[in-house]
Design brief:
Elements: H1 3-24, E1 39-50, E2 53-61, E3 71-77, E4 83-90, E5 101-109, E6 112-122, E7 128-137, E8 144-150, E9 156-168, E10 171-180, E11 185-192, E12 199-206, E13 218-227, E14 230-238, E15 254-261, E16 266-269, E17 273-274, E18 282-288, E19 294-299, E20 317-318, E21 325-330, E22 333-338, E23 349-358, E24 362-366, E25 369-380, E26 382-387, E27 391-396, E28 401-407, E29 414-420, E30 427-432, E31 435-440, E32 445-450, E33 459-464, E34 467-476
Parallel strand pairs: 1-20
Antiparallel strand pairs: 1-2, 2-3, 3-4, 5-6, 6-7, 7-8, 9-10, 10-11, 11-12, 13-14, 14-15, 15-16, 15-17, 18-19, 19-21, 21-22, 23-34, 24-33, 25-30, 25-34, 26-27, 26-33, 27-28, 28-29, 30-31, 31-32
The structure holds beta-D-fructofuranose.
Protein name: Sucrose-6-phosphate hydrolase
Pathway: Glycan biosynthesis; sucrose metabolism
Catalytic activity: Hydrolysis of terminal non-reducing beta-D-fructofuranoside residues in beta-D-fructofuranosides
């Protein structure tokens, strides 16, 4: 560890220590989600199960609740439920990363954990440079920086970052989020025999094609993997214009499903589908664990989306991760389910089978940190679930539209996100203090959002507009 490295880490620990009480006294602090000890958390990085242990790193700015020269914070877990905060993995101490150890990924090779990340550099005039870097660990806790392993290829701006690495047929591949010099979003791809020397192969996919048309000026955080017979490319494109119910957030996150031809390094793919329909979901990253499951974490926020108005910044912290989700393909669609390990969080159970509500009738319950399941749903006309008097889930069986409305933390007005939904059969909802994750029809659609009810508010109210029948289960977590 260099002197600069030690100083930066020390300053970050001190910042966390000094603000511990203020941060932890926030009534909006979550109970079971991954958060920063102080400052700002953004993308999940380096998600891997390594020698049995789950590692999740995160983009971390310890010194303020805004963005800047990011560190890699580090959590580990045996079970995806209980997480331990580990020593900082990477601090932006070297010339090639002095303005941030930006997002990246982890792989196991030769028994060592390899972290690939972007070294972000800005000169005095704010001109950006970008380097794809490597750090290696033998114990999963201490990381030795190996420096720059891939330079910026011609034809791209310095918005070239977030390497995601995987192995295929004995060779290594890396996708990188990219922007061409004429401002088109791309996913670039490299290959390597030894993880040290990388050869640029081209773009696997990108905007401004005949198929996609104008589809963003920058594609951040790519992830490419094989799942249930398909090659899936997840990206977070910037610059999509709202289109009806679609692309309502400042930036999007979604996937293309298709086939990657490793010879030509091109992905033949279908349309882009947003992964989440809520307000707060970005930069997801997946890994395959030792059980062979494809798991996903995402940042529960979106860059540049009223971050300066966020209610938690007065407590000197901001943002968190989603719960981990398991991915599968079903009928050409990516399905997301909360990992089953989360069941270990359940404490008290309330089960009310066979609820029938007539127009205007309500079923009242309550919870602070809760899991809610409505199953065998039959809805005529409309169903609403009001949560803590601040967020409302609504399904209209006539319009076939599902809506999440919350009270905006920026201006106090109601705001909504929606998606089309043919049929509603089940709802699985996690409420953790100031976050909500709604899994519809066993993960066919998901809505993720932060919300900020009055602290202490517990009400959960299900009401019917026409007629509704369902079985209800609720657990305090
Ligand atoms: C996405 C992102 C990445 C970048 C990181 C910096 O939220 O902008 O592209 O690597 O955050 O923190």
């Amino acid at each position: 560890m260099t002197k600069r490295d030690a100083e930066l880490k020390e300053a970050a620990y001190l910042e966390a220590e000094m603000n511990k009480e203020l941060v932890e006294s926030d009534p909006y602090r979550l109970k079971h989600h991954i958060m920063p000890p102080v400052g700002l958390l953004n993308d999940p990085n380096g998600f891997i199960q390594w020698k049995g242990v789950y590692h999740l790193f995160y983009q971390w700015m310890p010194f303020k609740t805004g963005h800047g020269a990011k560190f890699w914070g580090h959590y580990t877990s045996q079970d995806l439920v209980n997480w331990k905060h580990e020593p900082i993995a990477l601090a932006p101490s070297e010339w090639y990363e002095k303005n941030g150890c930006y997002s990246g990924s982890a792989v196991d090779a030769f028994g060592k954990m390899h972290l690939f990340y972007t070294g972000n550099v800005k000169d005095e005039n704010g001109e950006r440079e970008t380097y794809q870097c490597l750090a290696v660990s033998e114990d999963g806790l201490h990381f030795e920086k190996k420096g720059v392993v891939a330079e910026l290829p011609e034809g791209y701006t310095a918005h070239f970052r977030d390497p995601k690495v995987w192995e295929h047929d004995g060779k290594w591949y890396m996708v990188v989020g990219a922007q061409t010099t004429d401002l088109k979003g791309r996913t670039a791809i490299f290959s390597s025999e030894d993880l040290m020397k990388w050869t640029y192969l081209g773009d696997v996919a990108g905007s401004h094609t005949e198929q996609l048309g104008e589809f963003g000026y920058m594609w951040e955080c790519p992830d490419l993997f094989h799942l249930d017979g398909k090659d899936i490319l997840i990206v977070s494109p910037q610059g999509l214009k709202p289109q009806g119910m679609l692309y309502q957030n400042v930036y999007q996150s979604g996937y293309f499903s298709g086939k990657l031809d490793y010879e030509s390094a091109k992905l033949t793919h279908g349309d882009f589908t947003e992964l989440d329909r809520g307000f707060d979901f970005y930069a997801p990253q997946t890994t395959e664990d030792e059980k062979g499951r494809r798991l996903l974490f995402a940042w529960m926020s979106v860059p540049d989306q009223a971050e300066d108005k966020h209610p938690t910044i007065k407590h000197k912290w901001i943002h968190n991760m989603t719960f981990p989700r398991k991915l599968s393909m079903h009928g050409g669609k990516l399905i997301q389910k909360p990992v089953e390990e989360l069941e270990a969080l359940r404490k008290t159970e309330e089960a009310v089978p066979g609820i029938r509500l007539q127009a205007g009738e309500q079923h009242q319950t309550a919870g602070t940190v809760s899991e809610l399941k409505l199953e065998n749903l039959a809805v005529r006309s409309g169903l609403s679930i009001s949560i803590k008097n601040n967020a409302v889930l609504h399904y209209s069986s006539e319009e076939k539209v599902f809506t999440l409305t919350r009270t905006s933390y920026a201006d106090g007005k109601p705001e909504s996100r929606q998606c089309m939904l043919e049929h509603l059969s089940s709802l699985h909802v996690f409420v953790d203090t100031s976050s909500i994750e709604v899994f519809i029809n066993d993960g066919e659609e998901v809505f993720t959002a932060r919300f900020f009810p009055e602290p202490g508010e517990k009400s959960i109210m299900v009401s019917a507009e026409g007629e509704a029948a369902f079985d209800l289960k609720k657990w305090e977590l």
